[in-house]
Amino acid sequence: MADECYSSPLDIPSSTVLITGGSSGIGLGLARCFVQMNATVIITGRREQQLIEAANELNRLGKKNVIYHVNDVDNINERRALYKWIVDEYPQTNVLINNAGIQQAVSVATSDKFAEDSSWEEQEKTIRINLSAPMHLSYLFIQHFRQMNVTTAIVNVSSGLAFVPLASISIYSATKAALHSFTMSLRYQTMKEMKNIQVYEIIPPAVQTNLGGGQSFGEPLDEYCRATFASLLQGQHEIVYKISETMRKLISREQVAELFMKMNDDLMATIQDPPIC
Description:
InterPro entries: NAD(P)-bd_dom_sf, Sc_DH/Rdtase_CS, SDR_fam. The protein is an alpha/beta fold. Helices cover 46% and strands 13% of the residues. It has a single domain (12-270), classed as Rossmann fold. The chain is built from eight helices and seven strands. Strands 3-2-1-4-5-6-7 form a seven-stranded parallel beta sheet, with helices on both faces. Helix 4 (117-145) links the parallel strand 4 (95-98) and strand 5.
């Protein structure tokens, strides 16, 4: 399943695409690609002004009006409300991209702070946004997609860190590993039982985005998004790029352990803030 492609990839110009976390980073970069191929694009996020600015930029690129909607996927009721809004107002939506995500560094050296509810709440938020939200939204939208007479898609954005974690962002890495597992299972089920639903996984390396407060290292955002979009057009089940492809294809526990130690030792030796995938 990992290296396979769907025989009939998505018809992008006729698609309506919902992108969570679509006002910045990879979400916005992918939105640019969809807009330039004349898809109808809906972006969501928590910050209205940022959504307005992103929609204005996207509207200068394409022929179709980009829609924005304020929504916080951290909240289970807002996820339900987002699904209802889409079904009621934009029932032609046939592509869901679960892109919204956050990361925070976690150190066991300060683990005593987790005795305070507020400190753990911040970490649990990472789990809700990175894992609970894409799982929940996937299950919600499957109910709508299975009734449509066109090809539909669920696209989950995980990370190269799903395969080789960074210790300093252990919870983030763990959520992406779990999302990878969930996406594989979802793809298997839909291929057997709901053939009009395609399931993709985008597996980024470190990319220059504002995730985790912003980073100047990693792959250039536009270059990465163009390459990822090209793979999506080809129907690739799992979409990797450079180092994330190396991470995904490690075949032994020894190789994983070796790369894990090198990544984490290099990180500790060179920078204060961890690279984010």
